[in-house]
Amino acid sequence: MGFTTPPPSLGGHALLVFLIAVVTLLLVARLLAALAERVGMPAIVGELATGVILGPSLLGHLLPGLTDWIFPRAAEQMHLLDAVGQIGILLLVGLTGTHLDVAMIRRRKATAARISLGGMLLPLALGLIVGYQLADWISGTPVGDRLLFAGLIGVAMCVTAIPVIAKTLSDMRLLHRDTGQMIMAAGTIDDAVGWFLLSVVSMAATVGLATGHVVLAAGYLLGFVVLAVLLGRPLVRRAMRLADRSEAPGPSIVAAVVIVLTGAVITQALGMEPVFGAFVAGILVGLPRAANQAKLAALRTVVLSVLAPIFLATAGFRMDLTALADPKVALAALVVLAVAILGKFAGAYAGARLSRLSRWEGLAIGAGMNSRGVVEVVVALTGLRLGILNTASYTIIVLVAVVTSVMAPPMLRYACARITENEDERLRKIDHDTWNGVPTARQPSSNAGEKSA
Fold first, then answer.
1. Torsion of CA 180, 182, 187, 189, to 10 degrees
2. Is this model's pTM higher than 0.90 or not?
């Protein structure tokens, strides 16, 4: 058999346009992220604003010629940016999984479960109701797809953005507080269930809403998790140990990337969302006696500083805030935003109070759990790709992600300032400062106290 004709390479002009777009997105995203952090907001706000400013909401509306020159409407050009962004978000979700503190969740599983259930079930139920009622109004989907639209809105309402809230807590020096640790534990459970539900919605959108299809989707998901625990855990541990034998971080980084992307490949092949596989694979990489976390620092830097901003900027690029000029869309946005905030706050607060936490602790946990950030952006992009969302409904969901991310820092600061810091938190803060290179003076304490911290 003769050689087949090789596929054509990327043309010179297409490559030039792609490079210009990447440089523009990174420069603007970095500047806006720095500006957001300077005024006390998460960097994600500036990174999402990059796409909003450069996209149809502003620059594309005012100077369409310039926008079309930098970001041509040709599908193949956007696909190049999307490919880079998808790698970025899969690695970001995988790295988020590596930070899952399994020991802490086991230790405070009852409190974490109550907060997680409260912060998940109430907004999920409210999202399903609101989504079903608004489906014909703003979704642009056929009447028969109302359940799919409602399911996607429900998932968007119940998630918590662990990557965003972890960085927010770290920047505000609240990660050592008990409330910060509990937000991370409950939020991780919410995100894991959220990826599960998103995969169910995705499979239902692909193969239909028949009972057999939904059961099959759930079976695939549970089967994947069981195989990950029984087979994936020892394989990943062995692979990471072999990679860590090298003193250089390169082999460990390559191993972690391959494992995370392999998890994404498996779930994508099964008809589920690749982010679910990446998240589970990241958890396996982060388990005790698996990866050397210090060697993955360079990977985190590249993902957080380069790849994730490209993804977030392209996500904002698909927003069109001019759609809010339509009174119907603006009203729907206010309803969805109110339901998202009240549902998450009330549910997480109720779970905290049922766990006998104080009122201020409940408010702090509600504020942290309310931050949707990058996770909700992934949900919105999935809905857009599957045809469940149109531009207006996509804009509304991403708007919720931005607003809730902006709300979290000031509310956390206000509530945590009214919670007395205990001894365990003080010792944990010293350990965090030492780890991050901040000079501190540890006061004398007993060995038992230090071990408990």
1. 150
2. no
